[in-house]
Design brief:
The chain is of the alpha/beta class. It is 45% helix and 15% strand. It has two domains: 2-94, K Homology domain, type 1 (Ribosomal Protein S8, Chain: A, domain 1), CATH 3.30.1370.10; 112-296, Rossmann fold. The N and C termini lie far apart (62 Å).
């Protein structure tokens, strides 16, 4: 066991949080004890863990001294991130942007959860983003994919989505595969055209640098050197979710996005996105990012609309529960 000390800072209480909640998170995550004595902050635990916690707290204090506002959400996100990679610089994490290298402006996160999301996509091979519409799940995933492609970290982008509106049976629709699936991947196209010139997008599609296909068409493939995005994943089945996750090849990463309150599957089918939260929750190398209505970055009225619908659903469930009890 080792014990190290840090000079107490006036910012330390802000970092500790209400009832030292953030300190308890640090203690649990790193397996250390933290206490204040003689105007010093003491950290007791295995030497490596104590040293890492010392670095974490020092960087948090420095960030606040430099004017960085760190709420509970930001500190809650940075604790496990620093545990996974103690070499990161916290200031870099909070100033991180997505560089597109196209002459267009860099894309900056607009909420703490978006910062966490960008951080996860840059460091983990499997990232799952779950939350309501308008939180930037798809847009930021596309931005990261384009950035990785333009910087030649991957050789292609693979975009896929369950086409439940067509029952994944696209044969009766006119046109080739691209024309058939195109309406169901329109949101991904919108994000692409916002980051790249339309002609360049079409050229990349023709060259196979950007591939667009329904989820059902991913079966039996191994996707190497690719940035894969599965959008609207709440409409994938358990079997499809397992299938796409096991398509991951060498030098590839996958980002899975969805909203578990918007499941359009037939009633007898279970959502693969709901199921995967339980199956993979303790698997190392996989990061789950949970968005809420607070992260909505569309028109301000969207937040109010989402809250109104959530309240209506809760009220309906209460009424249904009361009626069932009275039977």
């Amino acid at each position: 066991m080792s014990e190290i000390s840090l000079t107490y800072s006036p910012h330390f209480q802000e970092i500790a949080g209400v009832n030292d909640k953030n300190l308890h998170r640090v203690e649990k995550c790193f397996g250390v004890q933290i206490y204040v004595r003689d105007d010093k902050v003491w950290i007791r635990g295995e030497e490596k863990n104590a040293t890492n916690v010392g670095n974490l707290l020092t960087q948090l204090v420095e960030a606040m001294e430099n004017g960085r506002e760190l709420g509970n959400g930001a500190i809650k996100f940075i604790i496990p991130a620093f545990h996974d990679d103690p070499t990161i610089r916290i200031e870099d994490v909070f100033s991180e942007k997505i560089h597109l290298a196209t002459g267009k402006h860099d894309i900056a996160p607009r909420s703490v959860t978006q910062k966490e999301y960008i951080f996860a996509m840059s460091r983990f091979d499997v990232t799952l983003a779950i939350g309501p519409a308008g939180t930037g799940k798809t847009y930021l995933a596309m931005a990261c994919a384009v950035s990785e492609l333009l910087q030649k970290r991957v050789s292609r982008i693979v975009l896929t989505r369950p086409a439940v509106e067509a029952g994944e049976k696209l044969g009766f629709l006119p046109g080739d595969l691209y024309e058939k699936i195109n309406p169901y991947l329109r949101p991904l196209h919108d994000a692409l055209f916002d980051m790249l010139e339309a002609e360049r997008v079409e050229q990349m599609i023709e060259q196979g640098m950007i591939e667009i296909a329904p989820l059902a068409y991913m079966r039996g493939r191994t996707l190497n050197d690719a940035f894969i995005i599965l959008d609207e994943a709440q409409n994938s089945t358990q079997e499809q979710m397992k299938m796409i996750l096991t398509r991951l090849g060498l030098n590839s990463k996958i980002v899975i996005t969805g909203d578990i309150t918007q499941i359009d599957l037939p009633s007898k089918k279970s959502s693969g996105l709901v199921h995967v939260k339980t199956v993979l929750k303790n698997v190392e190398g996989i990061r789950f990012i949970n968005f809420t209505d607070k992260d909505v970055v569309r028109h301000n009225i969207v937040k109010k609309i989402l809250k109104a619908y959530d309240a209506n659903i809760e009220e309906s469930e209460k009424i249904a529960s009361t009626q069932e009890a009275e039977k």
